[in-house]
Structures are given as structure tokens and as C-alpha cells.
UniProtKB/TrEMBL annotation:
HAMAP family noted in UniProt: Arg_succ_synth_type1 (MF_00005)
Protein keywords: Amino-acid biosynthesis, Arginine biosynthesis, ATP-binding, Ligase, Nucleotide-binding
GO cellular component, one term: cytoplasm
Record-given protein name: argininosuccinate synthase
Database matches in SUPFAM superfamilies: Adenine nucleotide alpha hydrolases-like, Argininosuccinate synthetase, C-terminal domain
Phylogenetic classification of the source organism: Eukaryota, Viridiplantae, Streptophyta, Embryophyta, Tracheophyta
GO molecular function, one term: argininosuccinate synthase activity
Any single GO BP term: L-arginine biosynthetic process
Pathway(s) of this molecule: Amino-acid biosynthesis; L-arginine biosynthesis; L-arginine from L-ornithine and carbamoyl phosphate: step 2/3
Organism encoding this protein: Prunus avium (Cherry)
Domain Arginosuccinate synthase-like N-terminal: 100-262
């Protein structure tokens, strides 16, 4: 029961993980993954304070700035004395000179040391940026203090949840994009929306560079930097993990001490995790051996299907032009709809995937994903298409969906090819409107009903009873013509 209560606390306002944070090294291909996560009961305590997707960050002078939805929260920090952090912002650094750098920031060990490293090596002012893509607001607490202690001049926070779901997740859902048969692209979709926001912030604050904490072995470095290239090719890009001598957690701690950056004592996570409103991924530790079964206590969004309720739950998904709009008859905003389905799917153990995938950089990696709401939406959308798309259109759409998924996985969100394919997906989905009812039971999804005003299914035609539209006698001529190549080939052997 405690486990079920923890799942019910899951919402876009209180997910128990936050974007770019990593307390374990090396990165294992994720730009930002938190350390060991606590229970949803503990981390969901602030939900009542944060209704309406609004939250506040206090600045050094005690003032509070509040933001709703896509508005920016900016905490301007007091000037940091140059004697406290090595590296002058007025002089050339050890590796060159940059004016101002926008850093993807979480407040974890890695990004905390990147701030003074940038100042020391590029003599630059550092603006920290944090994106809320539904990973939870718990870790926003204390970010101003951490950024100030590291030497940042400014903290910018943007709530991107609605934009993330509406402009990135839902187009992928409409396209049917799944990478290598299983992966629903949770991390892949989040990176371009974060990187786009970083480009916007760089323009707002007059920065000439952006920086990220991606490892040189992973996919995320590509996803971030291709977005930077597409939206502002003049920006300089700094990737410390490809430049510095820090090789692990202990090196980072020593660097922090040397530069007077306080590092909180935290329990090192055994897993590398990345979470947002769409999914939670797990990598590392025993998962690095594909023969090992994941431990039961590793999962955080979904209960074990064996422990799920003994009674099924029915959920009705309303869809207009390939885009979900309602759950059980209630119209919801994109982020709210996904959040609600995450709660429903999570308590029934829906959406667990264990896979070995091919990273863009060439190596294989093993990951376990939890995507409860997304799995429900994919099942509903594909089922509705069975009514509204003809055979040829469905086959072409499915073939293009593979390429669409490859582009998203490879970080080519702003590639003209993906944008053109998205226009195609939008056009052929205009009639994908209706509703689908699904039965959720112990990790499984069963379709129980589907209907659409544009349904191509005709009971009077499909019925075994005789009808006026279809004359069964016509089938004889059709079969003879359809089978003509087979008959001709057989004649050669006779």
C-alpha cells in the first residue's frame, strides 16, 4: 500500500528527480542525472505550494520572483568576488577568453565545479540555467545558494513542461516514433527543448557561449550541440568533459575544495538516471550486465505488475487529429494530461521496458525505462489509426516513423527533414479523431473499444452477410488477376 501511495504522488509538479544532475560518475551517456532518489511521499510534500505550475526563486536581496507556465524565473545573484573563485572574468583564462557563458545547471557536483572551471579557463561570467521539464521541483530548492557559492552571476529557471509535451512529445506520438522497437525517446525529446531555451537565454543575457555537462561517450552531447548549431551557429560551445582532467567523483570533489566551492555530502547513487514528464531511465550498476534482472526496488514511477491492483481499470483517451486531448471525458492541457496518465499507468505497472540499444556514437548500452503515461497514449493512438488510415497510408507512415525516430534519437530535431516529415504526419492524421478505451491490468494494456467519426470500417461491408456494396462473386476475378504472376511462374516449371 505504501508503494501505491508513493505512485499516487507522481505529478508534473513533484517528480522526484531533476534534469541535469549527476551525483555518480562517469555519466554513462546522460547529460544530467540525479543521485539516489527518495520516495515520492517525501519529495511530493511541496505539491500544495506549487499548484498551477508556478514556483518561486528567491534572489540574494530577499526578493521573490514567481513564474507561471513558460515565464522565466530569474534570480540575479550578488557579484562574486574574484578572490573566492579562481579565474578572473575580466582577463583571459587558461584556455582563452569568453565574455559570458550560459551553463546547463542542476546544482549537483558536476555542474557546481563546472562554474569555477569555466571562470578559470575562459575568464568568463557564468549564467546558470535550469529547465523544468517535469522532473520535479524538489531539487530547485537551494539552487540560488549553490550557484552563488560556485561563482555564477545569475540563475535563470524556465518552466518548459507544457512546451515540452505539446511541441515535442505529441508530434513524436503522432508520428509513431519508436527507436529500435522499444524506446519511446524520453531523453531524446527533452534535450532539444532544453537546448533551445539555452539559446534563448543566451540572447537575453548577451552571452557568447553555452556549456553543458555531457560526457564524451554519450548521445546527449550531440543532441545539445546540434540544437545550438541549428538555432545559433555563432555561439561558442564548451564541453568540459571533453577538455578537463577531472576523471571521476573524487577528482571533482578535490577541484571543488581547491576552488572553495562547498560540496554537500550526499549518498552516491548506484544508478545513472534521467527523468522528465515522459519517462524515467535507469542505467549503470548491475544493469551494465545484460544478463542481470533489474532489482525490484530500482523502479520509481511504476509498481511491480505483480503488486498492482487485482481489479482492472478502464481509461478512455480522446484524440483529435492524432493529438490526445482528454482522459475519461475531461479535457486537459498537454502536460496535465500526461501527468494524469502517469499516475494511472504507474499504479498498474504499465510502461516498463528493458532494452539494449545502439548509441549514436557506436557502442551498445543497456537501459531500463519507465514510461507509464506514454505507453498508454501510444496504444490508444495506434489503435485509433486502425480505423482511420487505409492500408497504403499506414504502411508509408510506419516506414517513415522509423526514420523520424532515428532523427530524434540522433539530436536532429531542427533538421529540415524531420520538420518536413512532421508536416506529412500532421496532414495524414487530420482524420485520426475519436476515442479509444483501454483496460489496464497488472502491467498489460488491452483495447476494449475504439470509435471515430472518420472510421473507414463499415459493418455492412465487413459482415459475412450479403450486402449491396460488396459482391462476393467479384472475389474470383480479383484472385485470378492478383495471382497471375504466381501462375505464370508456375507455368515455367510445368
Amino acid at each position: 500500500m505504501a508503494q501505491l501511495k508513493s505512485i499516487s504522488a507522481f505529478s508534473s509538479s513533484n517528480l522526484a528527480f531533476h534534469g541535469p544532475k549527476r551525483e555518480s560518475f562517469p555519466y554513462h551517456g546522460k547529460v544530467c542525472c540525479p543521485g539516489k532518489l527518495s520516495s515520492f511521499q517525501e519529495l511530493g510534500a511541496r505539491q500544495s505550494e506549487l499548484q498551477g505550475n508556478a514556483f518561486a526563486v528567491s534572489s540574494g536581496n530577499g526578493s521573490v520572483t514567481r513564474a507561471h507556465d513558460k515565464q522565466v524565473i530569474r534570480a540575479v545573484l550578488p557579484s562574486y568576488s574574484e578572490t573566492e573563485v579562481s579565474g578572473s572574468t575580466k582577463e583571459r583564462g587558461l584556455r582563452g577568453k569568453l565574455n559570458k557563458v550560459v551553463l546547463a545547471y542542476s546544482g549537483g557536483l558536476d555542474t557546481s565545479v563546472i562554474v569555477p572551471w569555466l571562470r578559470e579557463n575562459y575568464g568568463c561570467d557564468v549564467v546558470c540555467f535550469t529547465a523544468d521539464v517535469g522532473q520535479g521541483l524538489k531539487e530547485l530548492e537551494g539552487l540560488e545558494k549553490k550557484a552563488k557559492a560556485s561563482g555564477a552571476s545569475q540563475l535563470v529557471v524556465k518552466d518548459l513542461k507544457e512546451e515540452f509535451v505539446k511541441d515535442y512529445i505529441f508530434p513524436c506520438l503522432r508520428a509513431g516514433a519508436i527507436y529500435e522497437r522499444k524506446y519511446l525517446l524520453g531523453t531524446s525529446m527533452a534535450r532539444p527543448v532544453i537546448a533551445k531555451a539555452m539559446v534563448d537565454v543566451a540572447k537575453e543575457v548577451g552571452a557568447d557561449a553555452v556549456a553543458h555537462g555531457c560526457t564524451g561517450k554519450g548521445n546527449d552531447q550531440v543532441r545539445f550541440e546540434l540544437t545550438f548549431f541549428a538555432l545559433n551557429p555563432k555561439l561558442n560551445v564548451v564541453a568540459p568533459w571533453r577538455e578537463w582532467d577531472i576523471t571521476g567523483r573524487e577528482d571533482a570533489i578535490e577541484y571543488a575544495k581547491k576552488h572553495n566551492v562547498p560540496v554537500p555530502v550526499t549518498k552516491k547513487s548506484i544508478y545513472s538516471r534521467d527523468g522528465n514528464l515522459w519517462h524515467l531511465s535507469h542505467e549503470g550498476d548491475i544493469l551494465e550486465d545484460p544478463e542481470n534482472e533489474p532489482k525490484k526496488d530500482m523502479f520509481m514511477l511504476t509498481v511491480d505488475p505483480e503488486d498492482a491492483p487485482n481489479e482492472p481499470e478502464y481509461v478512455d483517451i480522446g484524440i483529435i487529429s492524432g493529438i490526445p486531448v482528454s482522459v475519461n471525458g475531461e479535457n486537459l492541457s498537454p502536460a496535465s494530461l500526461l501527468d494524469h496518465l502517469n499516475q494511472i499507468g504507474g499504479r498498474h505497472g504499465i510502461g516498463r521496458v528493458d532494452m539494449v540499444e545502439n548509441r549514436l556514437v557506436g557502442m551498445k548500452s543497456r537501459g531500463v525505462y519507465e514510461t507509464p503515461g506514454g505507453t498508454i497514449l501510444f496504444a490508444a493512438a495506434r489503435e485509433l489509426e486502425s480505423l482511420t488510415l487505409d492500408r497504403e497510408t499506414m504502411q508509408v507512415k510506419d516506414s517513415l516513423a522509423l526514420k523520424y525516430a532515428e532523427l530524434v534519437y540522433a539530436g536532429r530535431w531542427f533538421d529540415p527533414l524531420r520538420e518536413s516529415m512532421d508536416s506529412f504526419m500532421e496532414e495524414i492524421s487530420k482524420t485520426t479523431t475519436g476515442s479509444v478505451t483501454l483496460k489496464l491490468y497488472k502491467g498489460s494494456i488491452t483495447v476494449t473499444s475504439r470509435k471515430s467519426p472518420y472510421s473507414l470500417y463499415r459493418q455492412d461491408i465487413s459482415s459475412f452477410e450479403s450486402g449491396d456494396v460488396y459482391d462476393q462473386a467479384d472475389a474470383a476475378g480479383f484472385i485470378r488477376l492478383y495471382g497471375l504472376p504466381i501462375r505464370v511462374r508456375a507455368m515455367l516449371d510445368s
